[in-house]
């Protein structure tokens, strides 16, 4: 008979924290009217015969609150980087000076802000689903342990309660981050 998988609440917690870190990163890519180097993270550049993230061919910095500066390392990559920025859904107009591309961050309209909030909600729901999947994995392990009698019913109930508490804590953190980001986006 095969041994049941081991139950490790610490592992489940680490996986949930990883999902939250990923959610925070996704929120960082949403524009709030202020320049952020994370804003360009989703942009892919066709470089050296393959698709690369912009931070693999250039350095992105924030010299002013409403300006991004993209320092392209290889002179031959300036055109592809500029093209990738222009074709992205960010609505930015690059201005090139040698190997430096400057991006002015325009004011957000009310409609654009509402669209950003919708995207933030979509990211939050994806993070909640990821947390619930991790919870389900933990509960499946507990069911298997109870079924093969390697864990008593009382231990199983206690462990399931711990998993649920961790799940609730992480879902609440996602909701709190979403409220903060929504407030940040809607602040003019």
Automatic annotation (TrEMBL):
Q: Domain Ribosome recycling factor spans what residues?
A: 23-186
Q: Which Pfam families match?
A: RRF
Which InterPro entries does this UniProt record tie to the protein? Answer: Ribosome_recyc_fac (IPR002661), Ribosome_recyc_fac_dom (IPR023584), RRF_sf (IPR036191)
In terms of CDD domains, this protein maps to: RRF (cd00520)
The yes or no answer to whether the keyword Protein biosynthesis is present is yes
Where in or outside the cell is it found?
Cytoplasm
Q: Which domain of life is it from?
A: Bacteria
Q: Which SUPFAM superfamilies match?
A: Ribosome recycling factor, RRF
Output the Gene Ontology cellular-component terms: cytosol
Single GO BP term:
cytoplasmic translational termination
GO MF, any single term: ribosomal large subunit binding
UniProt keyword terms in alphabetical order:
Cytoplasm, Protein biosynthesis
What family is this? Belongs to the RRF family.
Q: What does this protein do?
A: Responsible for the release of ribosomes from messenger RNA at the termination of protein biosynthesis. May increase the efficiency of translation by recycling ribosomes from one round of translation to another.
Spell out the protein name for this chain: Ribosome-recycling factor
Q: Lineage of the native species?
A: Bacteria, Pseudomonadati, Pseudomonadota, Alphaproteobacteria, Hyphomicrobiales
